[in-house]
Amino acid sequence: MRRTMPLAMVLVITLLAPVAVDAQKPRARDLGISSLIGGTPGPLDAITDVAGVEVGQTTIIRGDAGPLRVGTGPVRTGVTIVHPRGRASADPVFGAWFTLNGNGEMTGTTWLQEGGYLEGPIGITNTHSVGVVRDAILQWQVGRPGMQPWGLPMVAETYDGGLNDINGFHVTPEHAVAALNGARGGTVPAEGAVGGGTGMVCEGFKGGIGTASRTLPAAQGGYTVGVLVQCNFGSMRDMRVAGVPVGAELSDLAPCIAGEVPPGSPRRACGAARPSGASEDETELGSIIVVVATDAPLLPHQLKRIATRVSLGVGRTGGTGGNGSGDIFVAFSTANARAAVPRDTARVTMLSNEAISPLFAATIQATEEAILNAMLAADTMTGANNLRVHALPADRLMAILTKYGRSP
């Protein structure tokens, strides 16, 4: 439904449960690209391969593409929620966060860093809706039996003001609550232009939500690492897939204006020839939020190390952590259940540092693939002021990999 309904319809999609990705949109694993990236994907190749993790999303698409009318639209935005132990659990998880470049926001990080526990769901939305989603999570949390009657919710953002009427403040508490209550595990969360990623642009292509996972062999503990990204970062010029400069080969698909180009706009009209030597995508102005889940028994200082390694996965796709980018990552472990129960002491299990390197590699690989999955799942979208952002075409991607000798 999210890919076939015309934008001309007045449309608000509320995904009350994660759904399998549309078969007509292949994921990286379907194309064989997982083998180029490395590692072994989990059964779902998603963050929900980590038992207990649930994802819910609300997608808001309303109004025809056209001139921006603040407060009216076009609207291309939403909310994504990750529950570390599921929506019914009040049991905190060990966690940590890291920022590669801090031109962005993730609430709740001060207490996470100090206390070492992530005490509720993680929300992801657009830059100007962080407050409403944070408050909605808190109201949802304190109103549920068994949940603690206070909290410092974690909500992160990326900026969708290119395609979306971001200053119209279209995300409401009801949208956040729908995502909170509709979260599910055990399936591949919807990817692409859904949830908080609805209006996002990733390395010059239509981006949004993406997910992937890696499992370690039994000899290394058999642990799983799952990653979910909201990608809205990077430049087409720098984009890489399995080391291949795919973005530079697809510069004809740079974002464009579907109609008359306003005077002074850096964008060309869609279908117009690109001037020789012109570059419309030289500055990294976007952001990326990454959530890493694992069932490995890691303590907060070790999870900080995991969150730091996300940077290498982002870098493998061409991200540079530019000055205008908000690159913020959080990692948590679902091991050590009930470690936060009030008592004088708690007995916990910690993986040896000598055994942690395979988890670093898994995090890097799953991050790289999740970013690619976000672009592969998304369709071309036209939004505010007739800005059109193209989908990453799987057929041309595969042809480019073949050209560079990287065919799976």
Labels describing this entry:
408 residues, alpha+beta, L-amino peptidase D-ALA esterase/amidase, six-stranded mixed beta sheet, five-stranded mixed beta sheet, 8 helices, 21% helix
Describe, in plain words, how this protein is organized in 3D.
This protein is an alpha+beta fold and 408 residues long. It has a single domain (11-403), classed as L-amino peptidase D-ALA esterase/amidase. Helices cover 21% and strands 22% of the residues. The protein is built from eight helices and 16 strands. A six-stranded mixed sheet has the order 5-4-14-13-11-10, with helices on both faces. It has a five-stranded mixed sheet with strand order 1-2-3-6-7, covered by helices on one side. The longest helix is centred in the C-terminal third of the chain and has 21 residues, at 357-377. The radius of gyration is 20 Å and the shape is globular. It starts with 10 loop residues before the first strand and ends in a 5-residue tail after the last helix.
